[in-house]
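Whiteboard transcription, Tuesday session. T.W. wrote the structure tokens on the left side:
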């Protein structure tokens, strides 16, 4: 029996590459152990067959951005890799590291459902922090109560909230009892305050879009990768 060694050492012996490149091969999902992808450089191997995938290149793994359909009231303790949406056409190969140290950008308000952005990309998080108030968000808001004849016109100018000036909104009926509202930089509670000013009570809020990125036909709990080149 051969004493177990780190997978990175086996890759170095197999390819003659540097330690850094060995780790990049592994972390990029290019190394197979007995035919299965292993992306942990510290994984111990002994007699197993280790091979490099055809066309593999020792390139750094890019930070992943995931789009999640969060159910109302759900807490994402850990994303389920198996819950990837069938609508994901990016072709990105899931890696264990894609699900580590994810941070939510432009957070969905508590109790709401719909589109959530989880990312490892510090540049994207900075953009959300610096320019988030200029990114339009679109919601479907289920409401109770009777909207007066001029109700949509009342909602469109927005209302002052949390020490901020009113934010104009695009408002229309989505279906009976559900308003479609699009506006920039909403704070938690703003949609409820707007609806209250028009005599309505919010029953449920669902975010449909962030900038140019839609929720799409994902079921609650499903996720997909942000397509390369798609911008908010």
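and on the right, the sequence the group agreed on:
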């Amino acid at each position: 029996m051969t004493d177990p060694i780190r997978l990175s050492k086996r890759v170095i012996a197999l390819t003659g590459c540097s330690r850094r490149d060995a780790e990049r091969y592994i972390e990029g999902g290019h190394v197979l152990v007995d035919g299965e992808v292993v992306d942990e450089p510290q994984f111990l191997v002994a007699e197993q067959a280790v091979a490099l995938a055809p066309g593999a290149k020792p390139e750094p793994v890019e930070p992943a951005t995931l789009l999640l359909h969060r159910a109302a009231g759900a807490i994402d303790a850990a994303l389920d890799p198996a819950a990837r949406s069938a609508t994901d056409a990016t072709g990105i190969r899931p890696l264990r590291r894609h699900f580590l140290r994810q941070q939510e950008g432009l957070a969905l308000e508590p109790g709401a459902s719909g589109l959530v952005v989880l990312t490892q990309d510090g540049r994207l998080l900075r953009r959300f922090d610096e320019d988030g108030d200029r990114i339009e968000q679109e919601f479907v808001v289920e409401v109770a109560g009777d909207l007066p004849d001029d109700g949509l016109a009342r909602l469109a100018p927005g209302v002052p909230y949390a020490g901020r000036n009113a934010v104009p909104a695009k408002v229309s009926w989505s279906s009976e009892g559900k308003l479609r509202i699009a506006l920039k930089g909403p704070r938690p509670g703003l949609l409820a305050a707007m609806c209250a000013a028009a005599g309505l009570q919010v029953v449920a809020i669902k975010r449909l879009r962030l900038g140019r990125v839609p929720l799409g036909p994902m079921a609650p709990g499903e996720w997909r990768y942000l397509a390369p080149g798609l911008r908010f």
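Someone added at the bottom: The two ends are 54 Å apart (CA to CA).
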